[in-house]
Amino acid sequence: MAQHLLAPLRATPAARTAARAAARPAAPTVEVAASSRRDDATEFLLDADALDPTTLALAAARADVVRIVHSAALPTAAAVRALVEVLEDEVRAVGRDRADVRFVLEVEAVVAHDDADAARRRAAVAYAEAFAALTWSPSTTWLIAPAGRLTADATALAARTGVDTVALALVGRSRGYAATLAAVAG
Q1: How many domains does the chain have?
Q2: In whole angstroms, what is the distance from residue 25 CA to residue 70 CA?
Q3: What is the separation, in whole angstroms, between the first and last Cα of the chain?
Q4: Rounded to 10 degrees, what is the CA torsion of 123, 125, 129, 130?
Q5: What are the angstrom distances between the C-alpha of 141 and each of 1, 153, 157, 168, 169?
Q6: InterPro entries this protein is in (predicted)?
Q7: What is the pLDDT of residue 112?
Q8: Beta bridge partners of 170
Q9: Domain harbouring 49, CATH code
Q10: How far apart are CA 77 and CA 72, in angstroms?
Q11: pLDDT 10s digit of each residue in the chain, 186 long?
Q12: pTM of the model as a whole
């Protein structure tokens, strides 16, 4: 019995990566954040304040959905991917199947009219945060694109980070596109 439990620890890094990929859903999904919450699911929100070993262990043992948000502690897609890998290891360590836990990355999103508008909006957000004295650059984690490309960008982000779903947290007037994006994503 103990040999079976120790097998994942003895696996090579490549074998662990292959096992993680096999346990994930076939294709990541995209949804609109406000409409993605379920009352019947146990959810854990992992933000900068919740990234401690106890919370990670509890999330792995009890969560149906683990929501991840960018922060100073998770400022890049690579940092999110590393957290997802830790969570996957924790899920297996407590004897759960990876498919029983859904990892959702919530990302601020802005719908632009076209590529030029997207570039202008990115520059405006970067300009504003330059004066905010932040320890990280939130604008680098935002998705800003025309509606037709936003879901494709979110799907690509899900693939890079290893999450099951990217939930678009629409900012400002972009909230008016919620129904359109939900239809495209769904």
Answers
A1: 1
A2: 22
A3: 42
A4: 10
A5: 43, 12, 10, 12, 12
A6: Luciferase-like_sf
A7: 94
A8: 109
A9: 3.20.20
A10: 12
A11: 334 434 444 445 444 445 444 445 567 788 888 665 666 789 999 988 888 999 999 999 999 999 999 988 899 999 999 999 999 999 999 999 999 999 999 999 999 999 999 999 999 988 888 888 777 888 889 999 998 899 999 999 999 999 999 999 999 898 888 888 887 776
A12: 0.81
Q: What is the DSSP letter of 31?
A: E
The single-letter DSSP state of residue 1 is -
Give the integer Cα–Cα distance in Å for 125 and 45: 25
Q: Three-class SS of residue 69?
A: strand
What is the residue range of 60's domain? Answer: 2-185
SS3 172: helix
What is the C-alpha to C-alpha distance for residues 4 and 17, in angstroms, rounded to an integer? 18
Between CA 184 and CA 148 the distance in angstroms is 8
Task: Report the pLDDT value the prediction gives residue 78, as an integer from 0 to 100.
Answer: 95
Among residues 179, 173, 141, the alpha carbon closest in space to that of 34 is found at 179
Tokens of 65: 């959905």
CA 51 from centre of chain = 14
